[in-house]
């Protein structure tokens, strides 16, 4: 799954890419009211759509940049953010979300911190299997609680250096600190901690996983789910009965726990909406 290697040239390329991404994400600036949050003044359009009980569609409300299998998409991301800057919007025209290359059983803290500091509104974590992994993910996305914090747990561990995020979000430091928390644990938060449901274990543990405070959403990955279930290659078996049964199980849990859930689907968006899915990373 990983696009990682241990050789020095690759490490150097990754460092250069990371620094470049931080600069790129600083390019788009805007301003945003600091009044108490309502669905109409949301910065994060995915959350806004969910609060309206409407689907969030790729290309219309948000965009995901996946680094899991394609770690060098700087040009695409740069063009996307330059478009936002040219329009002079008070918030990004499309909410930017990053799917990191690291999987849930790895040390993810530095990657999560890097992309949040650059300005991402959501992080997608691949290959989640347990509630413990989700709790660790949530802590990586949160700042430590300060005096009088209304939502102190799970205690965050993110360090302070959001220079790119301040410019992209168009906020002063204190306002960013207030909004840069995980939703729906913090109703005023604008950050989404999103997991990939793509393993047999994640489906089996779905109720426990969905009860982790601070989890913002889940995306079903049919290809890896097919592999994890052991029924054959995704191209031939991505719509197999076993895969569909697992998807239905996840959708039912989404409704049961009122969790923002999505799926990589193009051809069956209306059917998936009826099943409880609201987040679609591939444009229909």
Please give a structural write-up:
The chain has 284 residues and is of the alpha/beta class. The chain has helices at 8-25, 45-51, 74-87, 109-118, 131-141, 163-169, 173-179, 200-204, 206-210, 222-229, 234-237, 241-257, 269-274; strands at residues 56-57, 62-66, 95-99, 122-125, 192-197, 217-220, 260-263, 279-280. α4 links the parallel β3 and β4.
Helix/strand/pairing category: alpha/beta
Q: Counting H and I runs of at least 4 residues, what is the number of helices?
A: 13
Based on Cα principal axes, name the global outline: globular
> How many β strands by DSSP?
8
Helix content: 40-55%
Average of the residue pLDDT scores: 80
The main pleated sheet reads as: 6 strands, parallel
Could you give a quick summary of the protein structure above?
This protein is α/β, with parallel strands linked by helices. Helices cover 42% and strands 11% of the residues. Strands 2-3-4-5-6-7 form a six-stranded parallel β-sheet, with helices on both faces.
């Amino acid at each position: 799954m990983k696009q990682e290697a241990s050789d020095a040239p690759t490490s150097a390329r990754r460092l250069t890419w990371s620094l470049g991404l931080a600069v790129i994400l600083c390019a788009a600036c805007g301003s945003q009211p600091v009044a108490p949050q309502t669905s109409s003044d949301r910065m994060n359009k995915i959350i806004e759509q969910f609060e309206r009980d409407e689907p969030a569609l790729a290309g219309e409300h948000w965009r995901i940049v996946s680094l899991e299998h394609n770690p060098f998409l700087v040009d695409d991301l740069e063009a996307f953010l330059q478009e936002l800057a040219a329009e002079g919007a008070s918030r990004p025209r499309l909410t930017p979300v990053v799917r990191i290359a690291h999987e849930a059983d790895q040390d993810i803290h530095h990657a999560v911190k890097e992309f949040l500091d650059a300005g991402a509104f959501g992080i997608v974590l691949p290959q989640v299997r347990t509630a413990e992994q989700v709790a660790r993910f949530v802590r990586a996305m949160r700042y430590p609680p300060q005096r009088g914090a209304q939502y102190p747990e799970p205690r965050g561990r993110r360090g302070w250096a959001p220079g790119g995020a301040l410019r992209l979000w168009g906020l002063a430091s204190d306002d960013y600190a207030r909004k840069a928390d995980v939703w729906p644990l913090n109703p005023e938060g604008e950050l989404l901690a999103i997991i990939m449901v793509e393993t047999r274990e994640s489906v089996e543990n779905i109720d426990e996983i969905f009860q982790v405070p601070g989890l913002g959403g889940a995306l079903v990955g049919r290809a890896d789910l097919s592999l994890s279930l052991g029924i054959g290659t995704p191209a031939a078996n991505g719509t197999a009965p076993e895969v569909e049964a697992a998807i239905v199980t996840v959708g039912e849990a989404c409704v049961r726990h009122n969790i923002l859930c999505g799926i990589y689907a193009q051809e069956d968006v209306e059917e998936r909406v009826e099943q409880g899915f609201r987040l679609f990373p591939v444009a229909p």
